[in-house]
Predict the 3D structure of the following.
Amino acid sequence: MKREKETKNDLSRRDFIKTTAVGVGATALAGLSSAEAKAAPLPQKWDKEADVVVAGYGLGGMCAAIEAHDAGAKVLILEKAPKGREGGTCRASGQFLLAPPPELEEAMYEYLRNQDYRHVIDEDVHRAVAAELVKVEPWILSLGGETYPALVGGSPYPAVWNVPGKEACVRKFVNSPTSGNAIGWSFFDSVVKSQGIEILYSTPAKSLVATAEGEVLGVKVESEGWDKYIKARRGVVLATGGFEANQEMLKGYALSPMYYHGCPYDTGDGYIMAQALGAEFLAMDNILAPTGPCLKVPDFEASFQIAFPANSVIYVNKFGQRFINEFKPNTYGYDWHDILLFSKEKMTFPQAPWYAIFDQIVMDAGPICSGTSGWNLIVEGYKWSSNNQTELAKGWIQQANTLDAVATAIAQLPSNEGKMQSSTLSTTVQAYNTACANKNDPQFGRPADRLVPISGPPYYFMELWPRLHAMQGGPKRDAKARIINVRGKVIPRLYSVGEMGSWWGSGYDGGFCEGVPSGRIAGRNAAAETPWS
């Protein structure tokens, strides 16, 4: 870095505070060296200051900023992404909220406790969340927003988990009767802008500044090639998202290779900063994948979520064998979880990647990637061609005149390492077409109305990967959204929101659902801290 810029702001507690910040000495997170997890040295001067500093401009960060501002605090938001690409994974999400009425608060608590089947989260945290969730809709209305019931096929969107309390899973959209298209995110963004809260774009938080005792005083950031120091008089809220876009960290927790379809800026920055102060970490293996297939191409950082528009398609593993009912319901990855497993007999991840084999009917039926969510569609603005021909020309979809040629082409892919055998693939397609003729799939139970034979030539294929939806593990936080260290003590003035230490614990039922309550709790409590200056 260039030499650190100095300002005229004096540090009033300088004589009291040690000259360097010291962490508690937590075990390094997977994929990180101990050198990466360090607190920043105390600066000679502060470059900027606020009461509450929020690192990250996703939904949790926005709601924390709004709540802290409304509590009278001066708020500063640090956003890693450049302007126009801000918003985190929530911007590219389905946009629905959990907003139960007050009379369902106890049921909401019961649902939260039951879906956390490993009992990862403390009871008082779920109590606080349930109490906050019943305030979501009135709060949105008070900010000038509108709410609409979240419907699927004309019926209320169901609870993910069939457990006691599920009746409390009342879902709403903000300012739109339909999902996606960043409409809910845009509403909260407009509230932040209307309140005049300052946002520093292209300014990633790099490390926390703290006393030797672990009290957080501010944040070290990178801005325009300079290291700068932001003073937080009351507290810091980490709203930096998960680590979906950090392949090195994923190797330590994910069962198999996978790719995200959300925010490319979610690289675990907040995890690294919290670890430097000895944060305890929970549920790091609660990774929502595979939520379906995705296509990963070099042109884009995030992946494309894939959904085939016709039925004449099968999925085969690296060896050319079917491994699943391709239309099996799959809620946040839980129903397909077993396909991530490693095969000790074959010493590989057989389904990472897997391959879709399909025909002209699928190509002509409509775009293979469409919808109202996903980073590449919503933020990057990519428009998938209606007949898939643009993507065929790009090589994202490949074509061959025989199944032997398909198998040969797949075997030559770096991800396959020659494992695909043409005889196996031909046998697999023949067996599938026979199942279609009999309207019975004895192997995987695919519904009869989905059993449509693959006709060719030509044949088409795509290399697909397990799609990663979100992370749920992270720093442990208490009912006030304060981060807890490995000794069970609060790290003073440090808060977290959203998926970075999610309160779902073992399960999951929507990220937009937790951004609002966790953000409000953190922002309110950070603003209530006594200023250290």
